[in-house]
Amino acid sequence: MRDLSNFKGCPAPQPVTLRGRFVTVEPYVREQHLQALWDGLGGMAINPLLRYFSQPDFTGTEDFAAWLQSVAKSGWLTHVFRDNSSGKIVGMANYMRADPANGVVEVGGVAHGSDMKRSPLSTEVHYLMAKHVFEDLGYRRYEWKCDNLNEASKTTAARYGFTYEGVFRQHMISKGRNRDTAWFSMLDSEWPVLNAAFEAWLSPSNFDADGKQKRRLEEIRAELTKESTE
């Protein structure tokens, strides 16, 4: 357990560029990214993709731009994902609800475009974002929350190594209905094993000639967790 007797908080997250082997995380800049992000999330197909977000459906890029501006004013730091091989913008996520005094921050507003599906990009994105939080900023807790009906998001959080903590019932009203919110977290004490698992999974040696994984991230993490407790 971390000694907190002299803990003085953490710096607030700032826009940051994080470069990986497959993908680069970049701070969202409207003039540079708006149209590319809209296209990368499927254009008007963005509404079913973001059906578990709380904002009303978008009618076009201007609605989308206004929403991004509004969440930025509330403290969200939107970052976009650039596929290193194609140069395309393929998704986004936000550092949000930062509590620097207690070393807690959430990743949310996560949207993976179709080009991220069944590829290493999404895993590397969340590895890079978590690594920045724990190693560069020194945070103690990294949160992931989602609508409890969003089974895909819950599965993804568990795959990345977030621990399920329970459901906040009647947590929000979203699009005219009740939303129960599922909470997940990573802790700084867990990060060394999580980091090692991410790095082992992302290693070129873990992919065959067709780019398919040889070992699942969950399998690698379970093995490393077992080793760390023996």
The arrangement of helices and strands along the chain is EEHHHEEEHEHEEHH
Beta content comes to 25-35%
Mean pLDDT equals: 96
The major beta sheet can be summarized as: 8 strands, mixed
Uncertain ranges = none
Compute the CA-based radius of gyration.
18 Å
- Assembly state of the chains shown: single chain
Structural class: alpha+beta
Order of neighbouring strands in the sheet with most strands: 1-2-3-4-5-6-8-7
Number of helices: 7
* N-C termini distance: 18 Å
| Coarse shape | globular
The percent range for helix content is: 25-40%
Can you count the beta strands?
Answer: 8
Tell me what the structure shows:
- This protein has 230 residues and is an alpha+beta fold.
- The protein is built from 7 helices and 8 strands; from the N terminus they run E-E-H-H-H-E-E-E-H-E-H-E-E-H-H.
- Strands 1-2-3-4-5-6-8-7 form an 8-stranded mixed beta sheet, with helices on both faces.
- Helix 4 links the parallel strand 5 and strand 6.
- It is globular and about 55 Å long.
- The model has no long low-confidence stretch (mean pLDDT 96).
Short descriptors:
eight-stranded mixed beta sheet, 34% helix, alpha+beta, 230 residues
Brief overview, please?
The protein has 230 residues and is of the alpha+beta class. The chain contains seven helices and eight strands.
Per-chain topology:
Layout: E1 18-19, E2 23-27, H1 30-40, H2 46-49, H3 61-73, E3 77-83, E4 89-99, E5 104-112, H4 121-136, E6 141-147, H5 151-160, E7 163-174, E8 177-187, H6 191-202, H7 217-229
Parallel strand pairs: 5-6
Antiparallel strand pairs: 1-2, 2-3, 3-4, 4-5, 6-8, 7-8
Helix pairs in contact: 4-6, 6-7
